[in-house]
Structures
1.
Amino acid sequence: MSVRRLRSFRVLLVLLVFANTSRALVDEVLDVLKLGKEVGEEVLNSWDVFGKPFNATGGVDLPVVRRREREILARLAVVSRSIEKLEISVQKVGDVALFLAKKGNKPTRLELRLHEMSDLLNRVAWSNRQMREYVGQQENLEQSTLQDFAEWCVSHDPGALPGLLERVHALVVPPHKNLLGRGLLQLIMDDLKEEDSDVCDLQMSPHQLIYDMYNTIALTEIKGYAMMQFSWMLLRIYGRGNFTQEASLTRQRYSERTGQTATAARAALAMSKRDLYRCDPPVHTSATYAEVTRLLQGYVENEVDMNSDGTCKENCAFYTLTENHGCYKEQFCDKQDKCRGRIIDCQYLDSDMWVCPASRHSQRRYEWIEYENGRTLGRVGSCKLGITKVDSWWRWTLTHCSYCLCLCEDEASVAERFFSLREVMADINENKVVTGMRLVKLGKVFHIQIYQGKLVERGFVESSEEVLAQAFDPEQAGVLEGVDYHTLTYERRAIDLDELDSPSGHVLTGARFRMIGAHLHFEIRATPFNYTTGKLHPEKSQWISNDNTEGSHTPRTRLELYKPDLPTRSHTALRIDSQHDQYIEFTHSDFDADAAQSTVPFIDVQPVVPSKALNTKGATLLSGAGLYHRGARGSGGFIGVKVITYDYSKHVKAEPPPSEFVDESETTEFVPIVN
Ligand SMILES: *[C@@H]1O[C@H](CO)[C@@H](O)[C@H](O)[C@H]1NC(C)=O
Ligand SMILES: *[C@@H]1O[C@H](CO)[C@@H](O)[C@H](O)[C@H]1NC(C)=O
Ligand SMILES: *[C@@H]1O[C@H](CO)[C@@H](O)[C@H](O)[C@H]1NC(C)=O
């Protein structure tokens, strides 16, 4: 051994003993990729120290072995503490696997594989815990105990650690592609394609789920790798052999496996859906939906009150656009709230009817209407406020003063049909990004509301907080139509349904409504960022939208509602039935089903905040958002927001562990200790 080498070895030893070895492993291990790299480096450093010969010319000195053993275990303890930290946050993935596995009645291939995977991961985790325990009480342990364990960690026995890791790998990357078919990640992806209920229940996008599953597997590989490498080191100082070659094979196999797993994960991630939305809640309440009110509402009015002369010369269909002109002889008009806005599209159904008025607090006018000819509008039942008989009449001029069924676009002051046009932005100057979104109704106005969190290194978001939307009153002085808010009207009641994603390298930092022609239009704000540092570049932010209109070359298409009843009355689950580049018009509920008393679609106000498996405290990075319609034939459905989670596929890569370590034992007087 050269003097220079010896000196550097001594320096290393001193560093080892006094510097507490934690240099390589940062305290805040954020992600698996980084951890893998750091564990690889730590293993290498350790080999640098223990792989090299040590001065054993003093003879077979047990205290020396004990000291070296302690040193190895101290290093292992550092590595294992880092793994443990990350492991705590990865725990939830187990629940996810369990959930997926549970939902099927008959055991599917996916289910069987998930069970096997979960079993294998548990066994590795168990042995890892065992090791931690040993490391913790090494003082009291016999060398043989540690040696036994180390031997298990590198044994050829199929039930030993290397065999377990190979089996985990075979689940992800089946060795015989054509025989065993698809890997686990692909199976999960296929499964999630079929059912959207999973996405709803888990509140994770398939992309997120696969990314987290990949992280769990990669973490297990790292654990296994560290355990195996430190076992070789222990066995070496116990004098069981040289093991340079074995350690190098272990490293080689580890790089192969992690490389293949990363490739499989990238392929699955690139193909998995990244959108996330809410589905029907178990019970519809004011916390889950809100309504636009009195946009176009079924309204019973007599012809005599719809013209300024008080005549009955025309028929109902004549009145396509009019207003109330009074209340002739205090008939039914005196018993109901008159329409203070425009009266639209009247029709004649029958001369006489029974009307059940709705309560004063309700935004409805009527609960139901039953005509003498038997036709019923709405759900006829008991009537709390008492049924009112409403009969048309003949005049002496032999003109018929008919009760018409019209639509009332009520005065804006009694309606709730405003949408805020104010921008909603995360605090980008504090490096915050949007982590969730919802629609809310504050007073009479609908707003976009966001959740935000601070973006840090490598795509991690520290936490998530709700940013309350600022309520305002459209009738307040200084608040402007077209600037601060939009009022839905008969002519301007379309809303664009788009799904918007940021360009690559950008994240979601805001959203807004804007008017394009007569359409209320949804837009997102995208900001570029540096993945390594997490730093946003606010000055390069941009608004992103799909400005297509219905009059263009490839026009935006309209989503039609068929006889829409209230979505809260639906007996079947409502599924997303809109596509990107469509629009829908707010309209009245169906006459027969609801007497046209409500405005549909309803607005889903459930928060859409992806849950986070990998890091329970953190939030999920998003790159896009959109508006969709969730409905079914015969239902008005809901309009809701969806979010698009960030695409991690390009950041998944396996870095082979460093391998510069060269065994130099042959140049020295190393004497293996033989027990
Ligand atoms: C090994 O240790 C012995 C005694 O501890 C010492 O005399 C000798 O010089 C050492 N050899 C080397 C190469 O450091
Ligand atoms: C350890 O193994 C390597 C590679 O097989 C070999 O070159 C070296 O001589 C061995 N060292 C000892 C001390 O046996
Ligand atoms: C991100 O930041 C790191 C560290 O400052 C820098 O080395 C890297 O070039 C940056 N990447 C891009 C794409 O700007």
Note: The chain has a mean pLDDT of 83.
2.
Amino acid sequence: MSLQRRHFDSLILGAGGAGLRAALQLAEAEARVAVVSKVFPTRSHTVAAQGGVNAALANVSADNWHWHMYDTVKGSDYLGDQDAIEYMCRAASNIVYELEHYGVPFSRLENGRIYQRPFGGQSQNFGGDQASRTCAAADRTGHAILHSLYQQNIRAKTHFFDEYFAIDLIRDAEGVILGALVLDIASGEPLLIEAKTTLIATGGCGQLFRTNTNTNTNTNAHINTGDGMAMALRAGIPLQDMEFFQFHPTGIAGKGMLITEGARGEGGYLINAEGERFMERYAPNARDLASRDVVSRSIATEIREGRGCGPDKDHVLLKVDHLGEAVVAKRLPGIRDTCRTFLHIDPASEPIPVFPTAHYVMGGIPSNRFGEVVVPVGEGPEEAIPGLYAAGECACVSIHGANRLGGNSLLDILVFGRAAGNRIIDYLKQNRFHRPMSESSLEAAMARLQRWDQAGDGERVDQLSSDLKRVMESHCGVFRTEQVMHEGIEALQQLRRRMAEVRLNDSSKVFNTARVEALELENLMDIAMATMMAAEARQESRGAHSRVDYPERDDSNWLKHSLYFLQDDQLEFKPVRTNPLSVESFPPKPRVY
Ligand SMILES: Cc1cc2nc3c(=O)[nH]c(=O)nc-3n(C[C@H](O)[C@H](O)[C@H](O)COP(=O)(O)OP(=O)(O)OC[C@H]3O[C@@H](n4cnc5c(N)ncnc54)[C@H](O)[C@@H]3O)c2cc1C
């Protein structure tokens, strides 16, 4: 059967908040836009976001975008690019009002304004009050946002390919991106989508780390396998700052489901086995609302020093029971459900056992504040790849630098999803025709799919997948050293060799999820190597990257972004953009909370 083809102005890979916000911008501008998602759009991981989205609306405390910018630069441990951070913080209020008009049912204050709660890393020093910057729809904010955006896209007539798996980007000889080869999961047939522009919005890669062991868990959906990042790598594009992976301080111990930072924002706090509020020792001012890297390391240290709770002293407790039943019911109904379902406890009357859990990737596809994918060209300035864009968790703009603040990712995906949409509209005005696609430009993508038609005995996907996760957690976790990561790289090289021997037991076509899992595992392998290589190279501690052998931040040598290229596992570096757009730069200072 010949390969089916479809043509669109614009192709968007991913139907999370980033993909849907971009699609809406394009559909409203009357571009023909296709959105491809490997799951039904409203099952994208954005749906799981709990706590909220940051914007300096000043509904609860004094606030403005400049303070938000300062907190974000400080939170990033000065690795964030300040032009992009300024752009995002300035855009935030309008983005939230826009959501409200799309139908997001934000929680309300008595006076009818949007409810805002304090979150980690938000400054405290304005008149001594804690800033309350995180706009929330109870603790189901992502759910509300994703459903509203999906409905708006249906109204605007965006074309959806639900349950289609993107395999690879298609590039011509000049490096222009012409669309993507995708797989119809239901029929098992490939489909070629040709487009004048392609936006990668495929989300994060939390599945690098294990689920369901006592001490190693992640909060991410099973679909978060970094597919778009790996597609970029195979197209010769590097990944930026992959050594920075965020561990969220409060996953349910031994299980990993997230308990939102909003629980601490509402007044919850952590205690150790002695009943002590230990965060007072690590972050005397911000205490439980210090940034996530700081709180996660503090919990890990308490446990390592023997002050963990429970028979195995392997977790700490998060108390919200003192807040009263009414606050828990009104502001934290989702985490109450989660605790009842998975722990059989009611957090309104009992503390929650928690432990840090793998949560968010700060690194990703290098992009700028217009959503364009940018790559270094010789010694000159970086250049945008024609027709290719990236937004959301898979992109590295870089807003979050070495550590993301809670509530800033929902903002990031919306601001830069929208910005990418606008940039694409401009590009489409100047590039009105599809470029010709030669058969040879399809070969690599087709081969990648056909490789899984080989049946027979061999290594198994699930075995390799759990070996990969074990290597990541034991060689690239919260605390890192040279020797351990060096061994980790060797272990990954061995896994790569074994990957060539993997075979599927089931070679049928119709809804063959084994084939999809195999393609996802290949993607995770490359991302694991990017993460480990960049982590081994960075000889300092900054944000989420904590080196036992290099405990200090080193601005004179390491205030720079890493770039990992798949070809020859090569690493390069590029400078941080320290100049904002209109205000003065925030120079690096010691980071204390
Ligand atoms: C439990 C949890 C709670 C969170 N809470 C908050 C919060 O309160 N505030 C905050 O700011 N941030 C929060 N975050 C982070 C934030 O939700 C995510 O970073 C963000 O939603 C990612 O959005 P996205 O659009 O980039 O990707 P996603 O929402 O992950 O969507 C990715 C899309 O790509 C598609 N896709 C991926 N690979 C393929 C492929 N190969 N082919 C086809 N489609 C593909 C998927 O189907 C999906 O549609 C939370 C994260 C988690 C895990």
Note: The chain has 16 helices and 22 strands.
